[in-house]
Each structure stands twice: as structure tokens, then as C-alpha cells.
Amino acid sequence: MKKIIIALDGHAGCGKSTTAKAVAKSLNYVFIDTGAMYRAVTYYFLENEVDFADPTEVKKALNEISLKFVFNPEKGLGEIHLNNKNVEPFIRNMDITSRVSDVAAIKEVRVFCVREQQKMGEDKGIVMDGRDIGTVVFPTAELKVFMTADVKVRAKRRLKEMESKGVNTNLSDVIADIENRDHLDSTRKESPLKKADDAVVVDTSGLTIQEQVDSILKLAKKKL
Ligand code: CDP
Ligand code: CDP
Q1: Fewer C-beta neighbours within 10 Å, C or N terminus of the chain?
Q2: Left (φ > 0), alpha (ψ -120 to 50) or beta: where does 216 sit?
Q3: What domains can you pick out in the chain, each with its CATH number?
Q4: Helices (H), the chain
């Protein structure tokens, strides 16, 4: 059967990864969470005290980094490994989350991550979620979706998720983080977050996860 690339871009916390995972599972495709790659690079930079403002230091650090997704059969999905270490448990905390958009705005970091992402999609059959997948990484992707949702709805969902993982935070901090990242991601010079001209907009504010997944699967099946 024909294989396609599904590019899922949009604002923070609107349900991209949850949807991408389920769509990939249903189609027997590979799910690639590109946010995890920018988070892993941020983790390396913070751990090694890399000066983000110094392009020479950034280039040197990127030369020392290898990123790959390793399939975890128990979870049924790939986990991000940085220099052969599984860094999934360390990349979703507030320290990383509050710095990742600064790191993701650096040109050299984008070139590095985009090159890796393009290699991962060579054989198609992928659902890739991020911010610039339909515009920069795979501008010829067969299906492009741009997801969004009301910021309060997104923040409440994220808060619930964080509380369930025992993270101590509150609604106003989560709203501030989401608004700040959306602003930085949409206004940066390099590959800003924006809807591709040919992307379908899906507003998830009033949708359940199942409705969201079904709407993307319906769009995908039309392309197959
Ligand atoms: O899950 P959430 O939407 O909160 O974030 P994420 O998808 O893990 O992405 C974290 C950050 O990485 C985003 O806020 C962007 O700054 C950056 N990112 C990017 O610039 N380009 C991508 N393709 C994916 C993520
Ligand atoms: O990847 P992105 O940052 O766009 O969002 P996500 O990590 O997939 O979803 C953020 C949170 O919202 C997760 O806890 C999802 O389970 C939840 N969610 C929800 O409750 N209802 C939806 N319709 C979509 C997402």
C-alpha cells in the first residue's frame, strides 16, 4: 500500500503528540516527536553549560551530539536517546520546557535537527509532529494538519497531565509558559511556527482525543 508523510504542526499543548501517536498506531506508521529532539538538545546544552549565544560553542556542542529514537516495545513507541542514553525522563520538566524555545530558535540547531528528521522520513510511513514539519522539513508532505486550541483549554489539559505525574505547578504558570513559547516559536527568524498554505486547520478546543484522532485518520485515508 502507498505510504505517505503526515505532518502535524501547531501550538503547544493542543494534542499533537497524543493524536500523532494514535494515528501512527492505527496506520502502522512510525511516530516522530520532533519536540523531543529540541528538548534533548536543550538538555545537553544545560547539562554542559553551553553558551547558547556563542555560535562556535553551539557548533562544537552539536558535533558532540547524536540523537536517535529507540523503540520501546512496552510503550509501543520510540524514545529519544542522546548519545546512547535514554533522556525521555529528563526532558519534560519546567527547566527544559522554559528554555527549549530559545534553543530551538538557533539556526545551527534547526539545521542539525531538520537534517536528522528528513533522514527519518526517507521511507515515508511517518507521522511527525512539531512546528515546521509542513513548512520546512517536509514541504511536500501528502497530508499537513495545523492544530490549535484555546490557550485556557490547552493549559488546563497540560496542568492535569503534569499533576498526574506529580509535578507541582499551577494554571497561571502553565498559561504563561504556553503563551511565551507560542510567541517565541511564531516570531523567531528561523522557521517560525506558521500554517502551511495547504494545511488543514483543526481546532481541538471542543474535541475529545478520539474525535481528534478520527478526524486526522479520515483525512489520511482520503490521501491513501
Ligand atoms: O509538547 P509541547 O507542544 O509543549 O512542546 P514540544 O512539541 O515538545 O516542543 C517543545 C519546543 O520545541 C517548542 O515550543 C518549540 O520551541 C520547539 N520545536 C520546534 O521549534 N520545532 C519543532 N519541529 C518541534 C519543536
Ligand atoms: O503535543 P502537544 O503539545 O500538542 O499536546 P499533547 O501533549 O498531545 O496533549 C497535551 C495534553 O492534552 C495531554 O495530556 C492530552 O492527553 C490532553 N488532551 C486532551 O485532554 N484532550 C484533547 N482533545 C487533546 C489533548
Answers
A1: N
A2: alpha
A3: 5-216 (3.40.50.300)
A4: 16-27, 34-47, 55-63, 94-104, 107-120, 151-164, 171-187, 209-223
Cα–Cα distance for residue pair 154/150, rounded to 1 Å: 6
pLDDT digits (tens, 9 = 90+) for 3-52: 999 999 999 999 999 999 999 999 999 999 999 999 999 999 999 999 99
Q: What is the pLDDT of residue 76?
A: 87
Task: Name the phi and psi angles at 195, rounded to 5.
Answer: -70, 135
* pLDDT over 90 (residue 61): yes
Whether residue 11 is annotated as binding a ligand: the answer is: yes
User: What is the Å distance from ligand 1's center to 88 Cα?
Assistant: 14
Distances (CA, A) of 151 to 60, 206, 213: 37, 12, 20
* Rounded distance between C-alpha atoms, residue 108 and residue 111, angstroms: 5
Considering only residues 77 and 42, tell me which one the structure prediction assigns the higher pLDDT: 42
